[in-house]
Design brief:
Helix content is 17%, strand content 29%. By secondary structure, the chain is an alpha/beta fold. The model has no long low-confidence stretch (mean pLDDT 91).
Length: 421
């Protein structure tokens, strides 16, 4: 039997939870770990799993995503592999946007060319994890499942906002509740084997938004007008289809907020990060790096990661992630900073305020998006600011207790935001 595995990555909607990082780009195109994009995670997991038929469904602010995918993923014509971006399009059946994950897949079934023997792997474009999907697919086929949902055991106090499921002794899904808030409902979904004790909390199984479908089950599930897999499709099929659970108990982070994005980046600077980009057997792929090496002038670095092409002056850094072409002048202090760098270097005397961070600036607990220009003697710290605070020029936001200097933002010399601590 010639069975094909079609990997479908959901590009997300307007990206409101990650705003303002999604002000000028879609979720999967948000830079990660200095030199990657969020979309590199699921694409790399697919490639490392031996799957090279990869579709990326998107609709909002897709220009930078298109550029990145075209630069990074070029397969040879003999292997017949591809990463194809499918954006929302007008057809005879409709001319509006994707209404949800299931609606996006339904509208693109015509492009997949799938037959009944094929398998679909449905993935999210904004998660950080390393997973061999072939193991999940093999397990799915061995069990004779029609649909398999990947789930991770999590403490019950972290369950809000996630789909929770309960399984029987054969890992058949017998209950599925999307984003419950009632503590009694959450407690009902705690299986006996995940009951805690005086030292460990109760845990429950949370859906990771990763699904394996038999093609026939996919075709049946999408016959109606349901719009979302997690909210509608999966719960509606409990007891009607052979639904199984694939348990994954390793690092997984849903990059669903500015805070989670910030912390996911900074934990990479730890001695033993929860996610390891240096794992050689399962690399995370990216565009070819032709940048020069980074340059330092008497900088003091502590728990800091620095990508290629950076120019760093005599400044102090503590727990920072510096992206490609990051430029920091002399006399700066940076603590808990995610700096995404720049797309290009400055032309000589191109702007009054140069790319990067100007001299004698102090920046803490801040995300500096790409191509930002921060002047001299600037102080940035979210301490003392109310959630949702925005500066008059729309260059700086306070979101989830983190300051964000937006992409292409300009911060004038001498600007002071936040309280000194």
């Amino acid at each position: 039997m010639s069975r094909k595995v079609h990997c479908v990555i959901m590009g997300g909607g307007r990206g409101t939870r990650l705003y303002p990082l999604t002000k000028l780009r879609c979720n999967p195109a948000v830079p990660l770990a200095g030199k990657y994009r969020l979309v590199d995670i699921p694409i790399s997991n697919c490639i490392n799993s031996g799957y090279n038929r990869i579709y990326l469904l998107s609709q909002f602010n897709t220009a930078s995503l298109h550029r990145h995918v075209q630069d990074a993923y070029r397969f040879d014509r003999f292997g017949k592999g591809f990463v194809e971006i499918l954006s929302a399009e007008q057809t005879e059946d409709g001319d509006d946007w994707y209404q949800g994950t299931a609606d996006a897949v339904r509208r693109n079934l015509i492009h997949f060319g799938a037959v009944e023997e094929d398998v679909f792997v449905i993935l999210s474009g904004d998660q950080l994890y390393r997973m061999d999907f072939s193991k999940m697919v093999d397990e799915h086929l061995e069990r004779g499942a029609e649909i398999t949902v990947a789930a991770k055991p999590i403490p019950t106090d972290e369950a809000a906002g996630l789909g929770l499921l309960r399984v029987d002794q054969d890992f058949g899904i017998i209950d599925f509740v999307e984003k419950p808030t009632d503590p009694q409902v959450i407690q009902r979904l705690v299986p006996p084997e995940l009951k805690g004790n005086s030292e460990t909390p109760d845990r429950c199984l949370a859906s990771m938004g990763i699904y394996v479908f038999n093609a026939t089950a996919m075709f049946d599930a999408l016959k109606g007008n349901t719009t979302d897999f997690g909210k509608e499709v999966i719960p509606s099929l409990v007891g009607k289809k052979n639904l199984r659970c694939h348990v994954y108990d390793d690092y997984w982070e849903d990059i669903g907020s500015v805070r989670s994005f910030f912390e996911a980046n900074l934990q990479l600077c730890d001695d033993l990060p929860k996610f390891n980009f240096y794992e050689q057997s399962h690399p995370i792929y990216n565009y070819p790096d032709i940048l020069p090496t980074s340059k330092f002038v008497e900088a003091t670095l502590c728990s800091t990661s620095i990508a290629s092409g950076c120019q760093i002056g005599a400044s102090d850094f503590k727990r920072c992630m510096l992206g490609v072409r990051s430029i920091v002048a002399d006399g700066c202090t940076m603590k808990n900073v995610v700096m995404m760098g720049a797309d290009n270097y400055d032309s000589p005397q191109n702007e009054e305020i140069s790319l990067g961070v100007g001299a004698n600036s102090n920046i803490q607990n801040t995300i500096i998006d790409k191509n930002a220009r921060i002047g001299r003697d600037v102080y940035l710290n979210p301490e003392g600011l109310n959630e949702g605070w925005v500066d008059k020029k729309q260059n700086i936001y306070c979101k989830d207790g983190i300051l964000v200097v937006v992409k292409n933002g300009v911060v004038d010399d001498g600007t002071r935001i936040g309280n000194d601590i």
